[in-house]
Specification:
Layout: E1 2-3, E2 10-13, E3 18-21, E4 24-25, E5 34-35, E6 38-39, E7 45-54, E8 57-67, E9 75-76, E10 79-80, E11 91-97, E12 100-106, E13 108-112, E14 119-120
Length: about 120
């Protein structure tokens, strides 16, 4: 069982040594279902970041991701719920440091669901 993700969840990069900034979730959370008084996320979640940095190389955004929910038995508004630990698609970006460039992958995950009262699987 994992915690259900809500507004205010923490999203972090999966890859070691990668940092992200300017995280914005564009998908609206459920208006009908709440956990700890916060709206839950269900269905595919669209996320954009302003930049990603790896080894000093900076990739400027917006960089777009989709997180697919993994809940098997829990839903909100007829869609599977997003859970702590769910990950996005991996995006290959090109970072720049001066005249040098480097390609690297960025994947984001729900590090903390933003609430600790409702779990699902």
């Amino acid at each position: 069982m994992k915690y259900v993700a809500v507004e205010g969840m923490d999203l972090v990069p999966v890859e070691s040594g990668v940092e992200i900034s300017g995280v914005a979730v564009s998908t609206q959370a459920s208006s009908n279902v709440k956990a700890d008084g916060k709206k839950v996320y269900s269905g595919d979640i669209s996320v954009a970041i302003d930049s990603a940095v790896s080894g000093g190389y900076t990739a400027q955004g917006p960089i777009h991701f989709t997180i697919h929910p993994s809940a098997q038995y829990a839903s909100a508004d007829g869609k599977k719920m997003l859970l702590e630990g769910d990950t996005s698609n991996s995006v290959k970006v090109t970072g720049y440091m001066g005249q040098s460039s480097k390609a690297f992958d960025v994947t984001i995950k729900v590090e903390s669901a933003g609430q600790t009262s409702i779990k699902a699987e």
